[in-house]
Design a protein that fits this description.
By secondary structure, the chain is α/β, with parallel strands linked by helices. It has 2 domains: about 50 residues, Spermidine Synthase, Chain: A, domain 2, CATH 2.30.140; about 220 residues, Vaccinia Virus protein VP39 (Rossmann fold, 3-Layer(aba) Sandwich), CATH 3.40.50. The chain has 10 helices and 12 strands. The strands form 2 sheets. The protein has a 7-stranded mixed beta sheet, sandwiched between helices. α6 crosses α7. The N and C termini lie far apart (about 55 Å). The mean pLDDT is about 95. It binds S-adenosylmethionine. S-adenosylmethionine binds next to β5, β6, β7 and α5.
C-alpha cells in the first residue's frame, strides 16, 4: 500500500496534473514506451504510456463513445472497421456493439499495453477476446500500407505524435488510409487539444485536406486530459458528419450511452470561436 503516492502527468513543459494513487498495479518498459497501470483514488484505474494519461475508468466512456459512435452512426452500414492503436480495448469494445459490424481489426504496436489492460483494466479490455475482433500486434503505418482489405470506417486511436505515433499524423499514412477505405469510407482520429496543441490540429487538418474531399473537427469534454476540451478529426470520402447523420438509427440500434446522444452528435461539430479562428479554412462546411 502506497499511502502518500501521487502520479503527475507532465504535459508539454509547463503543466502538471496530479492524481492520488492507492496502488501501483503494473509498471513495465516495452520497446516503444513505459507502460503503467495505477489504481487512483478519485478516477479508478488509470493507464499511462510514457507518463501520459491514456484512459481512466472514471471517464474513458466519453472518449470511446465519441471516437466510435460518431463515425459508426454516420456511415449507413459499417461492416468492416479498423482501429489503429487503442491498446486499452475501449474503442474496439464500442465498435462491436454495432450489430452491423462483422469484423473489427485492431492494430496496436505495443503488446505490453494490451496485456497490461487485459490483466488490470477489464473495463476497457473486456471485449478483446470477442470473435469479431481481429487483434494484430504490429505497426498501424505498415498495416495500412500493405493490407488488401477495404474498411468502411478507420479509427486512429493513437497517442500524441511522438515515437511510433508520429507517422500517424503524416500525409503518407493518410494516403494509405484513403486507399484502404471503401468508396464511402470515413476516418476519425485522435485530434489533440485546441487549448494546448492547435499547431498539431492545424497540421493534421492540412494533411487530411490534402487527401480527403471533406475534413472536420469535433470536440468533447474529457475529465482527465489537460484542458478538459479534447478533439477528434473526421475525414470522409462522401458523408457529411451532421447532414448525413440520421438520428433514428441511434434509436433503432437500441444502444444506450453514458456520453454520446443524438443532439450531442451534431453539437460536437459546433466549435468555440477561438477554435474556428485558429483552424480557419481548414474545416469544411
Ligand atoms: N486514448 C488515448 C489517448 O489519446 O491518450 C489513446 C489510447 S491508446 C492506449 C493509444 C495506443 O496507440 C498506444 O497503446 C500506442 O502503443 C499505440 N500506437 C502508437 N503508435 C502506433 C502505431 N504506429 N501503430 C499502432 N499503434 C500505435
Amino acid at each position: 500500500m502506497h499511502s502518500n503516492l501521487w502520479v503527475e502527468e507532465k504535459f508539454q513543459d509547463f503543466l502538471g496534473i496530479k492524481f492520488k494513487v492507492e496502488k501501483v498495479l503494473f509498471s513495465g518498459k516495452s520497446n516503444f514506451q513505459t507502460v503503467d497501470v495505477v489504481e487512483t483514488k478519485g478516477h479508478g484505474k488509470m493507464l499511462l504510456n510514457d507518463g501520459l494519461i491514456m484512459v481512466t475508468e472514471r471517464d474513458e466512456f466519453a472518449y470511446h463513445d465519441m471516437i466510435t459512435h460518431v463515425p459508426l452512426f454516420v456511415h449507413p452500414h459499417p461492416k468492416n472497421v479498423l482501429v489503429i492503436g487503442g491498446g486499452d480495448g475501449g474503442t474496439a469494445r464500442e465498435v462491436i456493439r454495432h450489430a452491423s459490424v462483422d469484423k473489427c481489426t485492431m492494430v496496436e504496436i505495443d503488446g505490453m499495453v494490451v496485456d497490461a489492460c487485459k490483466a488490470h483494466i477489464p473495463q476497457t479490455a473486456c471485449a478483446l477476446d470477442d470473435e469479431r475482433i481481429n487483434l494484430i500486434i504490429g505497426d498501424g503505418v505498415q498495416f495500412v500500407k500493405e493490407t488488401k482489405e477495404k474498411f468502411d470506417v478507420i479509427i486512429v486511436d493513437s497517442t500524441d505524435p511522438i515515437g511510433p505515433a508520429q507517422p500517424l499524423f503524416g500525409e503518407a499514412f493518410y494516403q494509405d488510409v484513403f486507399n484502404c477505405l471503401t468508396d464511402d469510407g470515413i476516418v476519425v482520429s485522435q485530434g489533440e487539444s485546441s487549448w494546448y496543441a492547435m499547431d498539431i490540429q492545424q497540421s493534421l487538418l492540412k494533411v487530411l485536406n490534402n487527401v480527403f474531399p471533406k475534413s472536420y473537427l469535433y470536440s468533447f469534454s474529457n475529465l482527465t486530459y489537460p484542458g478538459g476540451l479534447w478533439s477528434f478529426t473526421f475525414a470522409s470520402k462522401k458523408y457529411h458528419p451532421v447532414n448525413d447523420f440520421n438520428p433514428e438509427r441511434v434509436t433503432q440500434s437500441g444502444l444506450a450511452f453514458d456520453y454520446y446522444n443524438t443532439p450531442l452528435h451534431s453539437a460536437a461539430f459546433a466549435l468555440p470561436s477561438f477554435v474556428i479562428k485558429g483552424l480557419d479554412e481548414l474545416i469544411d462546411n
